[in-house]
Amino acid sequence: MSAAHAAPAWITGRAGALSGIHDVPGDKSLSHRAVMLAALADGVSRIDGFLEGADTRATAAIFARMGVRIEAPADGCRIVHGVGLHGLRAPDGVLDCGNAGTAMRLLAGVLAGQRFATTLVGDASLSRRPMQRVAGPLSTMGVDIRTSDDGTPPLRLQPVATLRGVDHTCAVASAQVKSALLLAGLYAEGDTVVREPRPTRDYTERLLQAFGWQVDAAPGIARLRGGQRLSATDVRVPGDFSSAAFLLVAATVVPGSELVLRGVGLHPRRTGLLHVLRAMGADIREDNTRMEGGESIADLHVRHAPLRGIAVPQAAIPDMIDEFPVLAIAAACAEGATVVTGAEELRVKESDRLHAMACGLAALGVDVRETPGGVVIQGGRIGAGSIDSFGDHRIAMAFAVGGQVATGRVRIVDVGNVATSYPGFDAALRRAGGTLRDAG
Asked: How does pLDDT run across 92-146, given as a tens digit for each residue?
């Protein structure tokens, strides 16, 4: 690759104390789902706090391609003119999800009930991710959906006369698979029931109820009946806990730091990292706790604190699947060993995150051992070196945090995908007092 076309990179190094009061971008999971349900509703919905990331913009662009008028009067705001459950129009080509695995899997459920054929494609990273885990369960409902020979994108859907509700038990705890089945269930005859081996985030169930669709839900199970309608409603998207996690860990590990992160969503199925960090000794307080749009929100006040290694409870893993990379940085800064098990799902994210973090930590001199379903990280110091993010936004941001306490310069290669979830992350870290710059 020539220098002119080299993947973007960052350089970072040891920082002084981090401080200030900061906002984080809107929740990505909610932003995806809010646009989808608003597009399928009758009437006009307003979404405030919408994440201005590449992934969520891809979702909005896909619905615009299918005839939904979506206005953006200001950053973080979308006005969606819903076309109703059966009002989408056939697009004039393939639908590009970019890097958004959530968009592709959930859209498979929505498009299953349409009267036109569609093809979902993605970028190089998304094109390697497993889609049979959603295509297989959808096919039991009568959906005509096909993947490539190795079970990866593109996804090709053909219209069918009838979808039937199913009672499906998921093989893995995946909110995306559950959501795809529930969204297909909007178009199905009878009841659609989804059972999970462990409870996952229930944004889809909560938002469906907010848009007027009756859903019976409890931890680990959701049931809905087809044949209802969605009614427009206004949605307030809270700050994304997964984005807040990077600054939470940075302030925890950088001596002398004290930060406040305002308006962060504390959905119980998203905040596993918060409980794990506290178990490790982190000093994180919740202030100004309130409910907005059915979601618990608080300002998070974090101070530097020494951490100790722990055995991470397996029950916490599904609730921190996106936060593992930055947890690994916290573990590298802790006293003693941190042991992660039961995290096989991390191997099929934007990268194999277990392998990516193990490789990166080892490159920085951290004592780390990769296991089939986890890692063992011996805390100590983080040294200098060069890191490959494997094109994974969360790997890149995690090592940017690690660089704040490194003994020397850390170079992080292939950071372009950070814009998918946290546009402006580098500027946010600098505003807090961190050191991060583009590699020249």
From this structure: 999 999 999 999 999 999 999 999 999 999 999 899 999 999 999 999 999 999 9
Verify whether residue 322 is a known catalytic residue.
Answer: yes
| DSSP-assigned states of every residue in 12-50 | E------EEEEE-PBPHHHHHHHHHHHHHSEEEEEEES-
Q: Are residue 80 and residue 227 in the same domain, yes or no?
A: yes
User: Are 193 and 249 in the same domain?
Assistant: no
Residue where a domain stops, chosen among 185, 211, 236: 236
How many domains are contained in the chain? 2
Residue 410 sits in a domain whose CATH number is 3.65.10.10
In order, the DSSP letters of 299-342 are EEEEE----B--B--GGGGGGGTTTHHHHHHHHHHSBSEEEE-S
How far apart are the two ends of the chain, measured CA to CA in Å? 16
19-64 tens-digit pLDDT: 999 999 999 999 999 999 999 999 999 999 999 999 999 999 999 9
Helices (H), 211-291: 241-253, 272-279
Dig out the tokens for 370 from the structure: 């990769």
* 51 and 110 fall within a common domain: yes
The answer to whether 357 touches 325, Cβ cutoff 8 Å, is: yes
pTM beyond 0.85, yes or no: yes
Catalytic entry in 27, 322, 414, 426? 322
Domain, as residue range, for 215: 28-236
How many residues are present in the chain? Answer: 440
